Amino acid sequence: MAEEGELSRLREENEQLKQRVARLEQERGGAATAFLHSILEAVPAQILRLDPDLRIVYINRLAEGFRLDDVVGASVREFIAEEDVPHALAVIREVQATGRRGKYSVRGLSDFGEISVYDTYVSPIAEDDGRVGVCLVAYDVTEDRERARALQESEQMLRLAVRATGLGLFSHDLVHDTARWDEATLAIFRRTEAVRPSDLAAWVHPLERERVLGEARTLLDRDAFHVTQLRILRGDGSEGWVTAAGAVIHDASGRAVRIIGGVHDVTEERRVHDQLLRSQKMNAMGNLTAGIAHNFNNLLMAILPALEAALRDVPPSRRPMIAEASDAARRATELVRQLMTFAGQRRSPMSSQDLGHVAERVVGMCQRTFDRHIDLRLEGRDVPLVRGDETALEQVLLNLLLNARDAVLETGASAPRIVVTLAEASAADVASRPELAASQRWVVMTVSDEGPGMTEEVVGRAFEPFFSTKDVGKGTGLGLATAYATIREHGGLIECHSRLGEGTRFVVHLPVAETPSRPASRSTAPPEPGEGIRVLVVDDERAIRVVVQHMLEEAGFAVRVASSAEEAVATLGRDAEVDVVLLDRSMPGAPGSRLLPELRRLCPTAKVLYFTGQQVARGEAEAVDGVVHKPIEAAALVAALRRVVVPRRTAPPRFDANGFTASDEER
């Protein structure tokens, strides 16, 4: 009996334990279910369970605008864009067949039937009947895709902008002293690999290093964006200019760890800018020079004829001294002409010229006069004709050769070389110089010497008037300035290339003449007497009036003078008859151009000649009967006056903006 009671008690306790275990399992399962449900609600994705026939049996959340009854039991294909269904079904069938997970991207329905893009992950689920269903986890990546597309478009636009502007990008690691340069940066520096940030000597010009280091030290302490312009050394040994912009990245401790930024090649812009500054400086100096030269012309106009007259009248013992003074005045006249050429106030008569013949004459003369140990050569003679003034071109080449001679003599070499080279410019040569028209043919003349060379600063000032590195008394500082002005007047280009220790090279480009023409020649016949020709001299300078009146009266002219426009009008108003008026073009108060109509009215048959030390524009010159330039010697002035007054047997005299040219009979 006791044993049966004990057995009954054990059965009861066992039943209680089973019930307790069941309650615990139920509680544990409910907690797990609640936990799983919370996960499904929190996951930012739609999770679906599909039966083997791909019908939806579970979904963790519904899109806005959908009911559970609309979704559960429906085929998943109803919620996928029709064109994407084949791809999605193929992936799902493969997962069911292989048991391996898969993935696809499709467009499907989202809130209120809108179309969204879903990245969907597929996993197999074994059913009780042995068939295979699937679990889908679909992430709405529409916004991500849009952001990626916008980012890609932005990056593409940035790449296009960088490519269009020629901007090169770089990143300098300051911790490890390494650098990353893109292709554009490598091209700008003409290198095949980036240069370490610490190796400034490899890519920054020596004259820029101290400044660049100072800016870099300042930049490392700040987060500000920095822009600077600096001169660089390229991998091929050439120099250039870049605009560099960058910013420093600091780590959490504030230490500078990286510099990122970009560089833009501004070498050409810098060259054009420097050329513009030089041009502006030359123009400013030209304007100043023109005013000075004009006043000197007036002074020389009074001096030269007076010295000529004195040379005839003084005793023989005094003539050498007067002759020296006269020669000095003529040299001063030539100096003023150079000043006028530089200032653009004197134009040369243009015609077709054989530059080879010009070079042969000048080089031959220099070979005879230079020190014999100088090896002076001319290479290339057969080049197309150029349009220019023969004398002016000779003077340009002579100035360049004299400059080269002085340079090579400084070296003390036993046989220094100077080479003049003539050739027709190649297309590549012309294309490399934006100043030259690509449609025009060009002849290039190069004068190279083996002298000591020049610094970059001296090269930049080589064409400035009155600038000279020679000792006092050994140069006027006008030779290269005049050459520059002459070549510019000829529509050409002159450049100076030089480095210390490497000699100097002057390169001149001249346009080829379109059609050959015969240069004008001047008559050398002595002038005839004035034969009573009546002349009115109108000039505000008393010295000029006195000297011109004296030398014309001495030559047989009947001369009246006037110091102003008012006096000239009054003189002609008193029934004074004149054959020719010698009119100062730039009198103060009333310039000659303003007086001209009144002169024509008062004396319609008289010839009017401008008497000036300045350049006269073609349109202005055509309003008068000729132009006589100051200073002028007596014989030339007499010839000029006779030329417009005395009738010729052939064509009437012709003139250009520089003065008279001979008629056809005189040529």
In which range does the helix fraction lie?
Answer: 40-55%
Q: What gyration radius follows from the Cα positions, in whole Å?
A: 48 Å
Overall pLDDT, averaged?
79
Count of alpha and pi helical runs = 18
**Which architecture of the largest domain per CATH?**
2-Layer Sandwich
- Poorly predicted residue ranges: 518-527, 648-667
Overall CATH class of the largest domain: Alpha Beta
Specify the biggest β-sheet. Answer: 5 strands, antiparallel
How much of the sequence lies in strands comes to 15-25%
Which fold name fills CATH's third level, the topology of the largest domain?
Heat Shock Protein 90
The outline comes out as elongated
Number of strands: 24
| Sequence of strands across the biggest β-sheet | 2-1-5-4-3
**Number of folding domains?**
5
The CATH superfamily of the largest domain appears as: Histidine kinase-like ATPase, C-terminal domain
What class do helices, strands and sheet pairing give?
Answer: alpha+beta
What's the N-to-C terminus distance?
Answer: 168 Å
